[in-house]
Design goal:
Elements: H1 6-9, E1 10-11, H2 13-25, E2 30-35, H3 42-52, E3 57-62, H4 79-87, E4 94-97, H5 104-110, E5 114-117, H6 132-141, E6 145-148, H7 157-164, H8 170-182, H9 185-193, E7 199-204, E8 206-219, E9 226-238, H10 239-248, E10 253-263, H11 267-273, E11 278-289, E12 291-297, E13 304-310, H12 318-332, E14 337-342, H13 350-357, E15 362-367, E16 387-391, H14 392-399, H15 406-414, E17 422-425, E18 431-435, E19 439-443, H16 456-469, H17 474-489, H18 500-511
Parallel strand pairs: 1-4, 2-3, 2-5, 3-4, 5-6, 7-10, 7-14, 8-12, 10-11, 14-15, 15-16, 16-17
Antiparallel strand pairs: 8-9, 12-13, 17-18, 18-19
Helix pairs in contact: 5-6, 9-18, 10-16, 12-13, 14-15, 16-17
Length: 512
């Protein structure tokens, strides 16, 4: 294989393994470096130069785009360009794009003599338990030396990108600079970590989000109906179960309370889809399906063509309602934080809301306005809460006022409910927060790639409720909530729940 050009140095992992075998046969010592290397800088070059001193041949593998967990706005440069840039360095002999999230499998595959990391990895990293730790174990297991370079020149790709290649507008950049001047990433992550011991109960409807992919072929020859070619379908848990899964990455003790229908038994799928540390308590709703919201989606553009609800949204009644209120009463006594996600499909009745009124722990509430309940699920049916999180259109529906400013809407709604902490999510404009002590606080959005907005509000509700229950200030609440939203809109539906490591890495990336 020719090494005369940068492209000639970029190999597959299997080709790299073969080169390693040949180099070792010639008595040469092989060094392996691995990382994202999003923006090549002098610190990386010094790292490679020092790593080369441990042997004769330097191989660099890079994290593929799909596994870069520094937020949806990263990587700034795609994997092929990152590989070619590193290959252009004379000190580097071969480059390969990895196939896995970490270098564990890669180390085992190519078997270098030395696995080399930068000096900053001598101290604990946020993802050490899933990244460096297993990599070191893999190297030790097969007799590979682990070495560290001494970073005499420290640069950060994230910091350079934030300063010179920001994906955000000037107002968002200004807000982030101000936020960084008052908090460190460690400050924010510490507040997230402090919620780990909270016992959290999620109350709300179970929803199955089904995506049916189909390509529009044209209109029917007999009727003005769009005809589509079916491709495939996939389903994810949504509603209260999605919120519980989001929380499971941040709290050890999470419980979800809801109902399932007695038609089309879906309970096995629901239980399989829950995170291991989420406990579930389901009552049965007679003569009902478990709620399914089916979306027909163009597979290429991800444009939604049609949405179909399968549900019975009549309120729980009779024995079903009694079973639910009794279960709610038991669960309230066992939890510190209760998050009510009321989707307006018949779960929350007057008797269950009355129980919440007297709850002594931290109560967060969202009453959603959607196509199935528009105008019939007002937040004012809850007489009190410690925290209320609504979308702007839900505030408009509550007040029946279109022309008023969002701040005026918040002031009006706060006069109707015994609650002093309000969040209004504003989509691409971020979020607005209010309490009498802190006044109004605006936080921008951080989404740079939008695939699907379904579920973003649930993730925001989950993390903002946790933080507000800890007494976190509004700017931190909004920052973390909008980080969660940015991560979720970059995915289709609730395909992947939030987790602490990816969220922390995203926060660190934005805070540099």
């Amino acid at each position: 294989m020719s090494k005369g050009t940068a492209l000639g140095k970029v190999l597959s992992l299997e080709e790299v393994r073969n080169e390693v075998v040949c180099c070792k046969a010639d008595g040469k010592r092989v060094i392996h470096c691995h990382g994202v290397f999003d923006l090549l800088h002098i610190g990386h070059i010094r790292h490679f130069e020092e790593a080369k001193r441990f042997g004769d041949i330097l191989i660099v593998t890079i994290t593929p785009d799909r596994f870069v967990n520094k937020g949806p706005h990263r990587p700034a440069f795609p994997e092929d360009l990152r590989a070619q840039t590193i290959a252009s360095l004379g000190v580097v002999d071969y480059v390969a794009i990895n196939r896995w999230p970490t270098a564990v499998e890669t180390i085992t595959l190519i078997r270098p003599d030395v696995y080399c990391k930068g000096g900053d990895y001598r101290t604990a990293q946020v993802d050490a338990s899933q990244n460096l730790g297993p990599e070191v174990e893999a190297a030790n297991r097969i007799g590979i030396e682990v070495a560290y370079t001494d970073d005499d020149v420290i640069f950060s790709s994230s910091e350079l990108l934030n300063q010179h290649f920001s994906p955000f507008d000037t107002d968002t950049d200004a807000w982030l600079r101000n936020f960084r001047s008052r908090y460190s990433a460690k400050d924010v992550i510490k507040l997230i970590d402090s919620a780990q011991q909270k016992r959290v109960l999620v109350v709300g409807e179970v929803i199955l989000d089904e995506y049916t992919y189909c390509t529009a072929m044209g209109t029917s020859t007999k009727d003005p109906v769009l005809a589509c070619q079916y491709h495939e379908s996939e389903s994810y848990v949504g509603g209260s179960l999605a919120i519980a899964n989001h929380l499971s990455g941040f709290c050890q003790d999470v419980t979800v309370l809801s109902y399932v229908g007695d038609r089309e038994d879906q309970e096995a799928f629901l239980l399989e889809s829950l995170s291991e540390n989420v406990k579930s308590h389901f009552v049965t709703k007679d003569d009902s399906p478990t709620i399914v919201k089916q979306r027909f989606v163009d597979p290429y553009t991800k444009t939604k063509l049609l949405e179909l609800y399968r549900m019975n949204d009549a309120p729980l009644q009779g024995e079903n309602e009694r079973a639910f209120t009794e279960a709610l009463k038991r669960q309230l006594a066992e939890h510190d934080v209760v998050i009510v996600a009321d989707y307006g499909h018949g779960l929350m009745t007057g008797s269950s809301i009355a129980l919440l009124k007297d709850y002594k722990g931290f109560l967060a509430v969202n009453a959603q306005s959607n196509a199935g309940n528009r105008g019939f699920n007002p937040i004012s049916k809850y007489p009190r809460a410690d925290y209320i999180c609504l979308a702007q259109h839900e505030m408009v529906m509550e007040t029946r006022t279109r022309e008023a400013s969002t701040r005026d809407l918040v002031t009006e709604v706060s006069s109707r409910i015994d609650c002093d902490s309000f969040t209004v999510t504003l989509g691409r404009l971020g979020s607005l927060h209010y309490s009498s002590a802190e006044g109004f606080v605006e936080v921008p959005a951080f989404a740079t790639r939008i695939v699907d907005r379904v579920g973003a509000g649930d993730g925001f509700l989950a993390l903002s409720s946790l933080l507000r229950s800890q007494g976190a200030p509004w700017d931190v609440v909004g920052f973390v909530g909008n980080v969660a939203g940015a991560q979720l809109v970059a995915e289709l539906g609730n395909r992947r729940p939030l987790n602490k490591i990816d969220t922390a890495k995203h926060i660190i990336s934005l805070m540099k």
